[in-house]
Amino acid sequence: MRWLYTISPKSLLLILVAFIGNAQILGIDLVSFLLVPLFFISIPKDGTLKRHTLLPFCLFTILMMLLITQTILSDIPIQNYYLWPIKAFFIAMIIAFSDELNWPIGNSMMLFAGCIALIAIGTVIDGRLYSVFGPNMLYRFFGLLLFLSAGLLINSNHTKKILAVTFLGFATFGSILTGSVGAFAIILAVCLFVVTKMPKSFSIALGCLSIICVLTVSFYADRLAIMTSSLTVYNRILYKILNIEANTRLNGWNEILNKEISFLGFDYYDFSGIWELGYQYPHNIAIELYAFYGITGILTLLILLLGTFKTLKQSITNNFIAISFIVILIGSLFSGELSDNYAVVGMSAGILLRSKFPIRPLST
């Protein structure tokens, strides 16, 4: 049972700086404060770069410098928005050139304890959980615990499977409490991940059951809404599904994409007609990079795509960096802006650059 008490502080700190977004303490950006010591304890003392990573490293550095310049020159009224390329660069360097990274079960225990604390001190408002973070950041912590637990369930012995099931149940509960579309997208991704590891007959049966559930909701939506009028989270999901054509975000995305391509990106106020209370940015990292950064944003999107392809080509069951990247990537497609989603860019670049050191299995 010694595995239960083994932790990797460096990996925990890396996940913390990747997941807390624009968090501040006494007006100080918390990620900026934590990144410096994490960088120095992570990078090998010899500081060498392998020859085949030198050119990509230089190209990525130039791209980040261009993004920093554009961000500073732009007038985007989001607090500390200018910091996101710097945070992304440091996270990329830590992942690319850090020595051995691992995620022992003790780390999952710490994450589990943190998620319990977030719920314990939180409050539910209009059917959504608010705590130290808002619901659109909270579900990323629950989603990470959910995905890591699924990997542990698939690849561990009987004792650890019991622990994994406990984590899975709690993480699912916490994710649902947030009422966020991104949370349910992560739950769906975890289900697909688990299904691919199951026997084919089980996968087919589960797929048929899912189709039946979707059809039932579609045919009896009105009756279900009346029967569950007190279930605010359920009604929120049902409303979003049945009113997708009237979704403000989707309409905003459509307006942005229908504009002629701008080489340097559009001005923030070019879209003032679609910015509303609670919706001052696209809530989608791809649309945001395209709209505000033009060709530089498109090149950054290429890094995201290549990083995603490399991640999906390998086995993610035992790779906590890959799992963390997938969770943040899914979240960035539905919520937050780049001052919250900087880690998507940093992690994708780090995954592309990383080749020298191993990432040890989750269950060690």
Oligomeric state of the chains present here: single chain
Mean pLDDT score, rounded?
A: 79
End-to-end separation = 11 Å
In N-to-C order, the SSE pattern is HEEHHHHEEHHHHHHHHHH
Q: Number of helical runs?
A: 15
General form: globular
**Helix-strand makeup class:** mainly alpha
Estimate the strand proportion: under 5%
What is this structure, in a nutshell?
By secondary structure, this protein is mostly helical. The chain has helices at 9-19, 30-42, 51-73, 84-97, 105-120, 135-154, 158-178, 181-196, 200-219, 221-227, 232-242, 248-257, 285-313, 320-332, 338-353, and strands at 24-25, 28-29, 123-125, 128-130. It has a domain at 2-41 and 51-132 and 254-353.
Task: Please explain how this structure is put together.
There is one protein chain. The protein has 15 helices and 4 strands. It is an all-alpha fold. Strands 1-2 form a two-stranded antiparallel sheet. It has a two-stranded antiparallel sheet with strand order 3-4. It starts with 8 loop residues before the first helix and ends in an 11-residue tail after the last helix. The model is unreliable at 224-231 and 360-364 (pLDDT under 50).
